[in-house]
């Protein structure tokens, strides 16, 4: 029977080292290293002994140390402001899953909003020598992009465009035009756009497509701007849109969270019925959009597909660092639910 060495409490609070594995297996430290290095020379018998010892001790390869020696950390920074909100939370989840699947180590950098928070986020991202950086829509400021470029990092930008960087975008303008046509086909002419004072590229593109398509077809569009692109922002926008004498018949919201806030405001503070008196369309199709409380008609933005395209661009950039910047634009589809009347529907 093989005797098992008793591990002390002090040793159990420390990471198991390759040297400990070597001693247990009765081999050299370099043999352990070779056993865990793909393609390295080590006999099958010796590798089996090493793997058995590693499993018994709970040994894990120190990938961070290996990355430092190879000057490649395998860390990929995901730079985002308010990663807990709405679609961004689902996109961060999809990106981390896709990156782990390819063998990368995702590190989420929450930029915050103050100067101190931004500085701390920059130091974290570049201090750990990340292999690449993925920047999500709306944030951070251009200083992050410039620093990534100066450090020679592959840079993927989602939901916006930056000079010299690869990017993945949704056809926001096309979606805005489609929302306007949907309302127009239902005979609605008094339209509104629920936006935000934080003017991100996605919001600007959605509003432009919506207003241009509506106004060139004879409809009027008023705009309500919330303080932010969240539930409270939707309440703010609704307060502006439904506080006057002329009430809109239909509202296109810059995202689902804004739509939720607007719908709840309308229910509490007006006598309008959704969708008979007011049609509402959102954007993103986050899971809550399908809840009975909102039953929101909205444009679907698939986080898993966005993440797949981002990782694909990253791999192409690492394989060919000098290739021209790639610009991918993804289509979106309108998911029909109960918050907007269909074109052939007429209220009783």
Report on the architecture of this protein.
This protein is α/β, with parallel strands linked by helices and 348 residues long. 43% of the residues lie in helices and 17% in strands. The protein contains 13 helices and twelve strands. The protein has helices spanning 9-12, 18-25, 29-35, 44-57, 63-70, 86-101, 115-127, 142-150, 172-185, 201-215, 231-241, 256-269, 303-319; strands at 75-80, 105-110, 132-135, 155-158, 166-170, 190-196, 220-226, 250-253, 279-284, 297-300, 327-330, 333-335. The strands form two sheets. A six-stranded parallel sheet has the order 2-1-3-4-5-11, with helices on both faces. Strands 7-6-8-9-10-12 form a six-stranded mixed sheet, sandwiched between helices. Helix 12 (256-269) links the parallel strand 8 and strand 9. The longest helix is centred in the C-terminal third of the chain and has 17 residues, at 303-319. The radius of gyration is 26 Å and the shape is elongated. 41% of the residues are buried. The model is unreliable at 6-12 (pLDDT under 50).
């Amino acid at each position: 029977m093989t005797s098992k060495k008793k591990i002390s409490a002090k040793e159990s609070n420390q990471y198991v080292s390759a040297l400990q594995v070597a001693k247990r297996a009765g081999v050299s430290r370099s043999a352990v290293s070779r056993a865990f290095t793909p393609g390295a020379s080590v006999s099958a018998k010796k590798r089996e002994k090493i793997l058995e010892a590693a499993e018994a001790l709970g040994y894990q390869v120190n990938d961070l140390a290996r990355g430092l020696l190879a000057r490649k950390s395998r860390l990929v920074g995901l730079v985002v402001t308010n990663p807990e909100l709405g679609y961004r939370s689902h996109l961060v989840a999809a990106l981390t899953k896709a990156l782990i699947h390819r063998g990368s180590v995702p590190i989420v950098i929450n930029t915050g909003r103050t100067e101190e928070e931004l500085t701390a986020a920059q130091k974290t991202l570049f201090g750990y020598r990340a292999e690449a950086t993925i920047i999500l829509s709306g944030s951070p400021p251009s200083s992050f992009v410039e620093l990534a470029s100066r450090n020679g990092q592959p840079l993927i930008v989602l939901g916006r465009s930056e000079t010299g960087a690869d990017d993945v975008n949704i056809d926001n303008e096309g979606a805005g035009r489609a929302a306007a046509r949907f309302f127009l086909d239902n005979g609605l002419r008094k339209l509104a756009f629920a936006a935000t004072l934080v003017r991100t590229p996605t919001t600007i593109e959605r509003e432009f497509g919506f207003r241009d398509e509506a106004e060139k077809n004879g409809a009027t569009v008023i705009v309500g701007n919330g303080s932010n692109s969240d539930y409270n922002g939707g309440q703010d926008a609704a307060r502006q849109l439904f506080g006057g004498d002329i009430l809109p018949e239909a509202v296109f919201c810059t995202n689902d969270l804004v739509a939720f806030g607007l719908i709840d405001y309308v229910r509490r503070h007006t006598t309008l019925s959704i969708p008979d008196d007011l049609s509402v369309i959102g954007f993103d199709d986050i899971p809550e959009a399908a809840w009975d409380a909102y039953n929101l008609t909205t444009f679907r933005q698939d986080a898993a597909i966005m993440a797949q395209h981002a990782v694909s661009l990253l791999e192409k950039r690492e394989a060919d660092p000098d290739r021209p910047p790639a610009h991918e634009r993804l289509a979106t589809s309108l998911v029909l639910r109960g918050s907007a009347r269909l074109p052939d529907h007429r209220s009783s």
